[in-house]
Amino acid sequence: MLVHICCAPDALYVMELLKEDYEASAFFYNPNIHPHKEYKLRLEEAKKVAKTAGFTLIEGPYDSRRWFELTEKFKDEPEKGRRCDICYAMRIEQTARAALGGGFDIFTTVMSISPWKKADVLNRIGRMFARRFGIVFLEANFKKKDGFLKSIELSKAHNLYRQNYCGCLYSLRQVKSRT
Fold this sequence. Notes:
By secondary structure, the protein is of the alpha/beta class. Helix content is 52%, strand content 9%. It has a five-stranded parallel β-sheet with strand order 3-2-1-4-5, sandwiched between helices.
C-alpha cells in the first residue's frame, strides 16, 4: 500500500494503524505547503517518523508552481472550499500515479484524519483516480474513533512539530488574519 502523508503527526498514527493489515510505504507529496521552509520542516519531521515507525518514505516532487496555477483563482475561498478540493485531487492523483508506477496494488491518504478535511470528498476523489488508473483506493475516515486526538497525543509523546495551518499560503493568511 502507498499512503499519501501530509505531516508527521498524522502519518505516525495512520501508518501505525495501517501496518496491522498492510505492508505500507508513505508518499510525501505536498506542493501546497508554503513557504518552502515550512515544506522542508514538515518533510524532515516525516523522515523522523518514518525512521521511528519503520516505514519507507518516498518523496514526491515539490511542484508548487503547478499547485498555484490550479488554485490561484480560488485563493479567496474559505478553508474546505473548492480550492481545497482541487488541492486534494492534485495530491491524490499523484499518489495514485506513484502507487501504480511503484508496483503498489492499493493507495490511500492520511488527510481524512484532520477535522478540517472532508473525508467524503477525499474518498470520492480517491475512488475517481482508482477507477482512472485501475488501482484500489482504501476509503477511510481516520478521524473516527478519536483518530485526530490520538495523533495529537502521539505527536506530543514523540515531540513532533505540529503545524497550525493546512500548509498552503491561503490558509496561512487566514490564520494570520485571525491573530
